[in-house]
Amino acid sequence: MFADLLRRLTDPAPERLPDADARLALGALLVRLARADGHYSPEEARRILRILRTRYALDEAEAEALRADCEVMEAEAPDTVRFTRAIKDAVSYEDREAVIEALWEIALADGQREAEEDALMRMVAPMLGVSDPDSARARQRAAGRMQG
């Protein structure tokens, strides 16, 4: 399952991903960010679960299964540069912008801005084709949700 998706993502001319594959690829990015500082905290895992559950209208068991698949996918995915560029070509701008917002939510989950997470965000947003102003607005929306 993952090998086929990875092959399609890294194809020279990737096609639009089916919804289930897009969920997996985008969820894997959430996991990659959460693991960027070398500490995948229970809070980050819970927040990823909540994002997946809310974004895709899943029940708890479905969201848990998807998060587990995303964790495996992230571990098997190629380097962030190739993986992210492939997603850019296969996923709509609106979905990529929403993923940036979710990524900011993960980066801010533990209340600290880690250098590794900030560096990955600075790299991922442009690779996904999301503009700096859109990424900044996504960060502000995520931070607002964290406080409220």
Automatic annotation (TrEMBL):
InterPro entries: DjlA_N, TerB-like. Pfam families: TerB (PF05099). The lineage of its organism: Bacteria, Pseudomonadati, Pseudomonadota, Alphaproteobacteria, Rhodobacterales. It comes from the Bacteria. It comes from Limimaricola cinnabarinus LL-001. SUPFAM superfamilies: TerB-like. This is Co-chaperone DjlA N-terminal domain-containing protein. CDD domains: terB_like_2 (cd07313). Residues 23-140 form the Co-chaperone DjlA N-terminal domain.
